[in-house]
Design a protein that fits this description.
Shape: globular
Strand order of the largest sheet: 1-2
Number of strands: 2
Helix content: 55-70%
Radius of gyration: 21 Å
Distance between the termini: 29 Å
CATH architecture of the largest domain: Up-down Bundle
Largest sheet: 2 strands, antiparallel
Number of domains: 2
Order of helices and strands: HHHEEHHHHHHHH
């Protein structure tokens, strides 16, 4: 089945954004100009812009001086699509944890082998900030996500970065009623320190082993304390992504 006209126009708009290297915050041309450029009706153009807004490529600002403004899509849009697909496939929370358990040790290995000094400094700063945030659950969880994102993007493979970041949004166990008490936060902080040491050493096998132990311990924690949540089927509406 050929794509809808609005989808084709949306793809052309994205190509022009990339070809012209338009930065985030740039305004697209006025509607009347775009209607002429793409030779489509107003409804088709507006549908195309809505598609891009849903994908995080742009936002539609109302009022004078408004219109479509370029934004930067992030992993939450991939997470939203994955959550929707998983709901239709009756996928439990456990499956996402297991996927991370397989992927993240590899990203730690690649990060150790490819990471630069700037990344190493960011990882160490993240570990230090986690240690200082043990009494602040929300700050701790934000830093926890940031650490794993740094490792994933440090692999220098964008697919790992996007996939793992989106899985983090989905595995926010607080949505399912999972608690992260201080004693567990301390264990996670210590595990991150071990992963960081492995990456700092430049030894891929050491970093991979540390991350695998961390992910295995995390899975055991969930299985021991949150068996019901592990088997709960994920739904799109849980996340508000």
């Amino acid at each position: 089945m050929p794509p809808k006209r609005a989808t084709v126009i949306a793809q052309r708009i994205v190509k022009e954004i990339k070809d012209r290297n338009l930065p985030v915050g740039s305004h697209l041309p006025p509607e009347r100009d775009m209607l002429e450029t793409y030779n489509v009706g107003r409804n088709t153009l507006r549908e195309a812009l809505r598609v891009l807004e849903l994908q995080g490529v742009l936002t539609i600002r109302p009022g004078p001086g408004g219109g479509p403004v370029i934004t930067s899509p992030d992993s939450r849009h991939l997470a939203s699509t994955l959550a929707l697909l998983m709901q239709f496939a009756d996928t439990p929370f456990r499956a996402v944890i297991e996927t991370r358990q397989l992927l993240e040790p590899l990203t730690a290995r690649l990060c150790a082998e490819r990471g630069d000094q700037g990344l190493l400094a960011d990882l160490r700063a993240s570990v230090d900030h986690m240690g200082a945030s043990l009494d602040d659950r929300d700050a701790f969880l934000d830093e926890n996500r940031r650490f794993h994102d740094l490792v994933a993007w440090g692999s220098e493979n964008p697919l790992f970065g996007y996939c793992i970041n989106s899985l983090h949004w989905i595995t926010d166990g607080t949505v399912l009623g999972v608690e992260y008490p201080k004693r567990f936060r301390k264990i996670v902080w210590q595990a991150h320190d071990e992963v960081c040491i492995g990456i700092e050493s430049g030894e891929g096998a050491k970093a991979e082993a540390a991350m695998r132990k961390h992910m295995d311990d995390t899975l055991r924690y969930f299985e021991r304390h949150y068996q019901r949540q592990m088997d709960e089927v994920l739904s799109w509406e849980m996340y508000g992504l």
